[in-house]
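Field: COMPLEX_INPUT
Field: COMPONENT_COUNT = four
Field: RESIDUE_TOTAL = 280
Field: MODE = joint
Values follow.
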Amino acid sequence: MKSEIAEILKKNQLSVTGSRTAILEMFKKSNGALAHADIEKKSTEQFDRVTIYRTLQTFVEKGIIHTIPTTDNSVLYALCINNCTQNHHHDNHAHFICDVCDITFCLNHVTIPEVNLPEGFKKKRADIVLSGVCKNCSNK
Amino acid sequence: MKSEIAEILKKNQLSVTGSRTAILEMFKKSNGALAHADIEKKSTEQFDRVTIYRTLQTFVEKGIIHTIPTTDNSVLYALCINNCTQNHHHDNHAHFICDVCDITFCLNHVTIPEVNLPEGFKKKRADIVLSGVCKNCSNK
DNA sequence: TAATATCTTGCAACATTGTTGCAAATTATA
DNA sequence: TATAATTTGCAACAATGTTGCAAGATATTA
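Field: COMPLEX_OUTPUT
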């Protein structure tokens, strides 16, 4: 695990540091998306707020994680499964936010259907944000 | 115009006040979504920041406007075209953010296609956020 | 229309979130 | 191991969002 994470960092020309390793590990272990606040509060080690901001920013730039749009004013981050390279994220992302447990899932296997845009509009990227009740919560 | 706006407010059991009228007018005149900062900066009259926050919040609760999720950490608001009643917004919204002019369009006529969710997930609401180049900008 | 009740606004004070510069510490390189 | 390059944490600040409360505006009733 440790070395796997170090590999990812090295592959992206990033120094392997304590905070980067720990934060990336949190993403690997989490089954959903994380907000800045989650990382600040839930990490065992204590990192400076600034460090977390900069780490997340770096990870986004390198294509290790991506941001998820939400209807409220929170920013969520989640691991890019694969193939996202620097400044060249996948063009399509589907996410599901559970109204009950509030966990955000990346639906990597969901294919985003084509949308009929009005004439003249050229699409580059599509985000779908679904909300409702997730698998775990509907089984209770 | 003035009276049309007053009508909307009355229909929603809201007192017709200067700030509400002016802010709602801004939405009517704007061809895209507005952020809190837009209203604070672009309005001719000067409103207290708190008033703007509370007005937007009230409008969202009444179903006059709705929020739009964005990948960065900004919150956008746009008029609900019709039928959105209190706490019962339309379940589907499609929006288009232009990378060039940065205007956000509500695509009211775009029907959101069905997404194949993994088993156990129950969808209540769907937001689609597309980005690319809008009609105006691609004609230049 | 005037008096009263209700609601809305603006101010102040505060909490949270995000940004920048810089010195000290850490990591990578030779 | 020494040096260069990068990263971190602190401080200071800027921007954004929240709450309580008194003064003002709007709606309601007679």
